[in-house]
Amino acid sequence: MMQSPEEISKFLSLVLRHKPELIGLRLDAEGWTDINELIAKAAAKNIVLSHEVICSIVQTNDKQRFFLTADRTCIRANQGHSIPVDLHLPEQVPPPCLFHGTASRFLPSIKEKGLLPGVRQHVHLSADAETALQVGARHGKPVILRIDVARMHKDGCAFFLSENKVWLTRHVPAEYISVAGEQ
Length: 183
Ligand code: HQG
Fold this sequence. Notes:
- This protein has helices at residues 5-18, 35-44, 51-60, 107-113, 129-137, 149-154, and strands spanning 33-34, 66-68, 74-77, 97-103, 123-125, 142-148, 160-161, 167-169, 177-182.
- By secondary structure, the chain is of the alpha+beta class.
- The chain has 2 domains: 5-77, Arc Repressor Mutant, subunit A, CATH 1.10.10; 97-179, Alpha-Beta Barrel (ADP-ribosylation fold).
- The longest helix is centred in the first third of the chain and has 14 residues, at 5-18.
- The termini are far apart.
- Residues 63, 65, 80, 102-103, 106, 109-110, 113, 115-116, 118-120, 124, 135, 139, 166 line the site of ligand HQG.
- Ligand HQG binds at residues 63, 65, 80, 102-103, 106, 109-110, 113, 115-116, 118-120, 124, 135, 139, 166.
């Protein structure tokens, strides 16, 4: 049984980004799933959703994590996937500088290997240091990294912007990373 919008959002993130198989859901190659199927499959696991509840979560979600097709029959997550989906995001010219929030304990490895996507499909970058700080704090003692995106882009690295304005790239080599702040 689901209650708060936050719990429903977490559930949607789980099945739309990471583990659709938990409820026997199938996502298409671009990450979309039919909302009626989602409701039925969730109901079979005693998770009560409705079209109205899902639409309201999509609209009010703090980070705009989800997106509906224009006819409101299908839903997908805007970013954050660990399962291989192709969002077909067009390449974008990025701003000259972006930020990544991480935890201090990851720094030695990041200095050696650069930023890796880990279980996700992309490295996630933020347009502002404040957002990066919040992302980093989820993992521990936060550190803000500044990425020399102007140089990365000039060197041929591709950047994508998710529907909810998270910058995505495949890998950030260590040479483009500097520590902008530690708390
Ligand atoms: C770290 C949230 C060691 C990386 C946020 C991060 C974001 C390394 C962690 C989105 C490393 C992965 C994604 C290396 C990277 N060695 N550690 N070489 N390279 N790391 O959760 O960026 O609320 O997969 O710094 O707002 O924290 O879910 O990525 O600390 O947009 O919608 O490995 O999730 O959005 O952690 O967060 P994550 P993230 P939602």
